[in-house]
Amino acid sequence: xxxxxFIKEKVIQQNMYYKDHIIMKYTIKYPQFISEDYQVLLxxxxxxxxxxALMYERSNVTNLYQMAMVEYEYSIxxxxxxxxxxxxxxxxxxxxxxxxxxxxxxxxxxAGGAHGLTLRYSDTWSLTNSKRMxxxxxxxxxxxxxxxxxxxxxxxxxxxxxxxxxxxxxxxxTLVSKNFKSNNYYLTKDxxxxxxxxxxxxxxxxxxxxxxxxxxxxxxxxxKC
Length: 225
Prior knowledge:
Blueprint: E1 6-18, E2 21-34, H1 39-77, E3 85-97, E4 100-110, E5 117-126, E6 131-132, H2 135-138, H3 145-162, H4 172-179, E7 185-187, E8 191-195, E9 210-214
């Protein structure tokens, strides 16, 4: 595999106690990249992802822990079951070749209630150009790039509706345009995956909707060194 970057997983995790009870636990995973050819750039990315993990620990985890303490006291006072809060951040590297790295993070938080929520965010990096890749880099020959992508996604949804596969809200046409984010994508060996957050265009049970635009379709091109 050309220009392959090795990846080592780093983990921050802890059980958090309050009055001798575990009321919250958290796990934060993030990558550490290793390569002979691009280590100067990768050191910057390693620092970036470590800093982001620590910032999440100091802000989101702290806020959730404070909420868990309040929930604990309320549950004890009303003889309710104790619900253990949780934060879990994991990553998936989806593309690691041709001088490019693409990955996404799923950030899950449970703070009581029927279920937790997952937020996804992603990055795609050009190692040769030492920068984050934007949509214009993936669709360089396509005018009105965003419009083409949105139309492609809507066509995929409509094709699914024709086959009675309809996990989306009735007003999906409006919601796709409204909630489309140009940075909500990552690369795979087959093409570009665009995604929407939970509840953006479909109910919670549908998870995080994803849509593949293959390379060569609507002007999408695979990275090259």
